[in-house]
Amino acid sequence: ALLTIESIRFKRSLGSFLLAIGIPLFFFTLFSSTVQMEQPETQESFLISYMLTMTSFSMSSFALFSFPMMLVEDQKNHWLSFLRHSPLPLWKYHLSKILRVGICFLASILIVFLNGAFLRNIQLTLATWLLSVLLLLLTATVYLALGLCLQHIQSEQTLSLVANVLFLLLAILGGSWMPISLFPDWLQGISKLTPSYHVNQLVVQYALKGEFLWKSLLVVLGYAIIFYSISSILSKQKKVRLL
């Protein structure tokens, strides 16, 4: 029943879904067709890395916008309060939300990857394609955890503003738009502290060189745990205030 409700809500927000996928897809298509490197190997590396970073960029929009907005909406229309007083376990509610966002993640990956494979002739082994998908889904947990923190912002306008700022800052500092080597040294140091930088490094380095950056994975998971812990503390404080 919850999944049926989520499917109806998904159809109503189809415009924002298409926008979240369409903008990164547009930039990937545009820049991958205009930027031409002298060496074929360099060009191929650029296309692969840009495809993966734009996919992660698209996924972060669902986690930082759609996910917290869904939770805030359910709080304001008292849907969550109704479920708390029903026999339905609350974990099923959260699972339905995660599945909805997960479907958006998979759609984003599929559309951008198909564009890269068929329109930009990116050639990777099947194992690399599949493991890249798994790494993208795994690293997206840090954006979901950050989205959980954002749900505690009371004003929807403030939430939208903060999400926009975080969305763009993480994309720029993480190297989604341009290599951080173009930044001044002090800004490169800040970039390397962001979770988005380690998300991009983890996925891109594996696809290009077959290297698994365990340090980046630990940083991403560490950020996810920190954000989730902050969200849990804020939730407990909110329950205390309501009591």
| Share of helix, binned | over 70%
Largest sheet: none
How does the overall form come out from the CA principal axes? globular
Low-pLDDT sequence parts: none
Task: Count all strands and give the number.
Answer: 0
Output the number of helix runs: 10
Structure overview:
By secondary structure, this protein is mainly α. It contains 10 helices and no strands. The protein has helices at residues 2-12, 14-34, 40-76, 79-84, 90-119, 126-150, 156-173, 185-191, 195-209, 214-242.
Question: What is the compact description of this entry?
Answer:
With 243 residues, the protein is mostly helical.
Task: Give the secondary structure arrangement, pairings included.
Layout: H1 2-12, H2 14-34, H3 40-76, H4 79-84, H5 90-119, H6 126-150, H7 156-173, H8 185-191, H9 195-209, H10 214-242
Helix pairs in contact: 1-5, 2-3, 2-5, 3-5, 3-6, 3-7, 3-9, 6-9, 6-10, 9-10
